[in-house]
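the two lines:
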Amino acid sequence: MSITVLRPGMLTTLQDRGRQGYQKYGVLVSGAMDEEALRLGNIIIGNEQGEAALEITMMGPVLKFTEDALISLTGADLEPRVDGNAVPMWRPIVLKSGSVLRFGRPVRGSRTYVCLSGGYDVPLVMGSKSTYLRAAMGGYQGRALAADDVLEAGRMSDCGRAIMESLKRRGNFITSPWYVQPAYELEQGADGPIRLTPGLQYRYFTEESCQKLVHEGFAITVHADRMGYRMKGSKLELTAPLEMISEAAVKGTVQVPADGNAIILMADRQSTAGYPKIGQVVLADMGRLAQSKPGEVIHFSMITPAQAEVLYIEREEYIDQIALSIQCRYE
Amino acid sequence: MVTYTITPLGEAALFVSFGHVISPHIHRYVRILSEYLDRHRFVGFKECILSYTAVTVIYDPFFVKRNIGLDKTAAEIVEDMLRQAVENMDKKPLAPADIVEIPVCYGGEYGPDLEYVASYHDMTTTEVVKIHSNTEYLVYMIGFCPGFPYMGGLDERIATPRRKSPRLSIPARSVGIAGEQTGVYPLATPGGWQIIGRAAVELFTPVRDTPSLLKAGDKIHFIPIDIDTYKEIRGDSV
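prediction for all of em together
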């Protein structure tokens, strides 16, 4: 099975859950911006959660499938269509050989994951298939997809084959009657504020800045990519200049350079940073942030690390349960 | 007695800090703790990020809780383990740092700012090279970009401010000075460092299991080489 890229889209790269264990060598983690969408997408087609998928951004590619394939589409709704027909998201889909998958305009969110049962057959670099463009590393030849690229599929799991067979048997050739609920719709207030915990230098910011952080909106600027989101809003200020020496930064770190505009660190962040950190986006909200677009206004709220931990564990339990129920149903 | 603080960095990382100044003494603890954790991994441990004065321990709260349960939060469980680690680690001897020799071709087209650095300090270029290459540098951490060493030990006599206008691209392996720091760029990148030479060896090779030539705790010696030796080492890749 292979996929031919007819048109590459705006930015289409292979991403998995990133490179773990190499940050001490300065190697960025990278990986899917919306990790939950990636994981759920893989689970529902019988893949390991951490298998790589195509992360497509705003304007999708045109992909031709040479043989019957089991795929899923999760994350942003970019109007996916197969041979002219709209296809549903968050479900397994069997595509007939020769099918062409294309995308329309961004209806909701900004990043869609095209998961392929069996995964994409590219070499692992430091244990990961994630693409890191600046070092031309990982993924498909270290770069974003281009026209005429051909992606080979890996071997499908027994569970993947069972899912594919069940869809064919139902005569429901294109998709399943069931779907999974995106993790960011789990709680009420999915459109609520992006939650933060206090950053390492939170207490060095003025009382006024800490208040503004949670009471005012901050717009995502056009300088928002896989590395980080530059925000615009009220200036966030320190009570006194702070002598900083570089220290670690992690996913969701909100740092504030001298100009007072926050930067949120995303998947392709550096492992170290030298600006004061006012907050940390809770990991349960990172997927929702990854789906936000330049121009959108983000509201923040502050919770404790212990509350954030509860949200994190609930999210993991939800994903775990889905993985288990798919396994029970098809194995 | 080691003094340290442990602070949460979000819900999946704890920041263990041994102080606030850049010094080999404090950095020793950073290395000892990270090496201790490498040997004594706990369930849910993901990785460490080393910096000048701190070790940031990244973990998965779900796995920590699932395996240990208790009424405590995952953060409390990991914090307890880290406190134990700090108490225990103190007695362990520190593995000797590797001494890494990096051949550097100073000046000429590879070191376009060497003349400026020399004139800034009223020295000859030979003196600058001599001072730069006669110093032993300590690698405090690797960060900023893959394989980039943050080093300490630059001789004050050749400390030089950054260029007023940064270059759009500095070639990979360039050796530079910025204020009281010196460093080597593993990848081509924009930057305002004063470039005084170019290393003949790669600092970052993604295909290797240890992708970075250097690691925190290494000591570095720069060995001056002439252009012919540089070309000989680089072979066809010049």
